[in-house]
Specification:
disordered N terminus, four-stranded mixed β-sheet, binds zinc ion, alpha/beta, 337 residues, single chain, two-stranded antiparallel ribbon, P1 Nuclease
């Protein structure tokens, strides 16, 4: 069985694009660039420029990931200097001090349980089980500091309102920078939808009965293929997206996306619903092996269905255009004409 799974997977993998950068760089920058182009000539665009000064949404879109280089166990020093080109402009003395200060404020403020990530790292995702049609804070994999609530909090700061606990965003500038990043994350299906598996590789619903931590595939991070893990495969963008090559086309497409109806505070959960739907589509036809335990929890090998690459590519393009449009919609709602 295992052999069969692997050979089927190799077939699918042979045609996959070369992996290199993550959604963390090109994808996030693309989302920032799309929103920027949609905000040209608007009041929101002027407010963004006033808050960012020399910077652009495209450039600051990755800051939320760059701050992960701050190590709380090394006295909040920056440990990834020179490692990520997209973070280079934040690696000045003042820039590093700002990153360190942010992480200090958002490291343990959510009281992470043993084995949980630092709080600011948890702001980037939710792991909602695919049986649910709708996101709801309270489901397994959600929290008051998941990506949906992080977007709500950043919007509140931009509106000049008090932010909910546990978030500690310093000011409007910091909130805008993080909002740009989180809206990108919210549209990556594996940042919101997750599959939960038992030891036999059967899909289960963690919100029914007693929740077993070992069933969590951690947004695809515990699903292994020869390429690494499924989450990284999804974070990555194919070469035609690199360095802004697709921005014009995607911005045109984003312009045609109608604004989502609803109150501003309800929008992040509605977009999370779309991400859960996308995750369900992308898991259809995926085969899971029995689990292999390792020190971090369980791991499963997976075999992806044929045509997976095409499904994934179309979904990524669509998700990036929507993310840019939705970021612009939020900012226009914060600063209406
Ligand atoms: Zn992120």
């Amino acid at each position: 069985m295992k052999k069969l799974l692997i050979s089927a997977f190799m077939l699918a993998l042979a045609s996959l694009p070369q992996l290199s950068f993550a959604w963390g760089a090109d994808g996030h920058q693309t989302v920032g660039a799309i929103a920027e182009s949609l905000l040209t000539g608007t009041k929101a665009g002027a407010q963004v420029r006033a808050l960012l000064g020399e910077n652009t949404l495209e450039k600051v879109a990755v800051w939320g990931d760059c701050v992960k280089g701050i190590a709380p166990d090394k006295d909040f020093a920056y440990t990834s200097a020179g490692r990520y080109p997209e973070c280079a402009s934040f690696e000045t003395a003042a820039g590093i001090a700002a990153m360190s200060d942010y992480v200090k404020r958002n490291d343990s403020n959510c009281n992470p349980a043993i084995g949980e990530e630092n709080c600011h790292k948890q702001y980037h995702y939710a792991d909602v089980s695919l049986q649910h049609d709708h996101y709801k804070t309270g489901y397994v994999g959600t929290s008051d500091h998941d990506v949906v609530n992080a977007i709500r909090a950043a919007v509140l700061v931009l509106q000049g309102k008090p932010q909910p606990k546990p978030f500690n965003f310093k000011d409007k500038q910091e909130a805008l920078i993080l909002l740009t990043h989180y809206v990108g994350d919210l549209h990556q299906p594996l940042h919101v939808g997750s599959v939960f598996l038992n030891a036999d590789g059967k899909i289960i619903n963690p919100d029914e009965g007693q929740y077993d931590h070992n069933s969590n595939t951690v947004g695809g991070n515990a699903l292994q293929c020869p390429c690494g893990n499924l989450h990284s495969l999804w974070d990555d963008l194919p070469v035609q997206f690199k360095r802004g090559r697709m921005n014009d086309g995607l911005a045109k497409r984003a312009k045609t996306i109608a604004p989502t109806g609803g109150a501003i505070e309800d929008l992040p959960a509605l977009w999370a619903d779309d991400a859960i739907r996308d995750a369900r589509i992308l898991f259809a036809g995926t085969q899971f092996s029995k689990s292999t335990p390792n020190q971090k929890g369980n791991n499963w090998s997976i075999a992806l269905p044929l045509e997976y690459e095409k499904t994934m590519l179309n979904m990524k393009e669509d998700a990036l255009a929507r993310a840019g449009a939705h970021l612009a919609q939020l900012l226009k709602a914060v600063w209406p004409e």
